[in-house]
Design brief:
236 residues; alpha/beta; 5-stranded parallel β-sheet
């Protein structure tokens, strides 16, 4: 081979060798895995949501979060907008005042007992509950499948309630729950019946809180267990 051609061949060989070595020592690093984000939960309601007369850890929403975590669901503690004595209109005003962002992965709604207790009309309840349900959907990023609703407990079976007319209270609670169930299911949202449990609690005082009106952490756990499969479906 002529000296010039030999020189060119040698240069090409060296260049290819350098390229091969460079490729073998500089592999492309795989992308870093994304850090998992905990789901967010907003609980809306009244004394049954805040767990009147029980420790905060015994609230049904807090217990629901604990059950979800035990099932490997990453979720933050609930953000709660609730207060004893609130009716549908008062809850709506509180939500408007706080003006929460529509960022929640799950929203629960439990409201209406004080409408019944104060003798408010069922038509008013229908209108205001429907509006609260629309608000709940909006706060759940506009997704009705990320909302769940619990029925109104029957306080007439408690020691406090027995001083009233338990049969009348039960009949009125049934009317309010029928409206809530109709509106909720029409929106494609699960309506979770906890009323039956509260009526069965009349035979077991361990389900009643110390004030004789509200429910103990033991009852709140029963509510959380009923809500659990729906919450898991929402957060799957």
């Amino acid at each position: 081979m002529r000296p010039f051609l030999l020189y060119i061949a040698t240069l090409c060989s060296l260049a290819l060798t350098a390229c091969d070595k460079g490729a073998s020592v500089a592999p492309v690093a795989p992308p870093a895995p994304k850090e998992a984000r905990a789901s967010t939960y907003l609980a809306l309601g009244d004394s049954y949501t805040i767990g009147q007369s029980v420790p905060e850890a015994d609230q049904w929403g807090r217990q629901l979060v604990g059950l979800l975590r035990a099932d490997s669901v990453e979720i933050s503690n609930p953000v709660t907008i609730a207060q004893s004595g609130w009716t549908t209109s008062e809850l709506a005003l509180a939500i408007a005042a706080k003006n929460p962002e529509p960022i929640y992965d799950m929203v629960s709604l439990l409201i209406g007992v004080n409408n019944q207790y104060r003798g408010q009309s069922i038509d008013t309840y229908r209108t205001e509950f429907s509006e609260l349900l629309e608000t709940s959907i909006r706060l759940a990023k506009g997704n009705p499948e990320h909302v769940l609703v619990l029925s109104i407990p029957d306080w007439g079976t408690t020691p406090f309630g027995r001083n009233y007319n338990p049969e009348q209270v039960a009949a009125e609670i049934d009317l309010f729950n029928a409206v809530a169930k109709e509106v909720t299911e029409a929106a494609g949202i699960p309506f979770i019946n906890i009323t039956t449990l509260t009526r069965e609690a009349a035979a077991d005082q361990s389900y009643i809180a110390g004030d004789g009106l509200h429910y103990s952490g033991k009852m709140h756990r029963e509510w959380a267990l009923l809500a659990l499969p729906y919450a898991k479906q929402i957060l799957k």
